[in-house]
Amino acid sequence: MQQFPNPIYVEGNSGVPESTYALVSLILGIVGFFMCGLLAIPGIILANSAIEITKKYPTHPDASTAKAAQVINIVVIVINLLVVLGVVIIIGAIGIFGVTQ
What is the pLDDT of residues 50-83, one digit of tens each? Predict the structure, then answer.
């Protein structure tokens, strides 16, 4: 006779992990790259909340997506801050040295 392992009972929502906004956060990060990083800010907030949810469930299917979204959103914010800093430096250099014709 074949023996089956004991079933695992999970309190709450019948063992189904909570849904996250990891994919939405990933999309916001990618689109935010083309929109001066404006969408990356809510994207990183959603990614952080998705990571908190996936920490509760070690085998959550969105764990890697949430981490990737967090990394992409941080990279997008850093790139856009560097671009803004570069523009400010260029405008400052033009203001100091002037434009010769």
Answer: 999 999 888 888 999 999 999 999 999 999 999 9
Q: Which two tokens stand for residue 45?
A: 């907030």
Greater confidence (87 vs 96) lies with 87
- Supply the pLDDT for residue 15: 61
Residue 11 maps to a domain = no
Total structural domains within the chain? 1
Helix ranges, 1-101 (H):
22-34, 40-56, 63-97
Structural domain contains residue 31: yes
Residue 91 lies in domain: 22-97
- Is there a domain that residue 16 lies in? no
Classify 98 in phi/psi space as left (phi over 0), alpha (psi -120 to 50) or beta. left
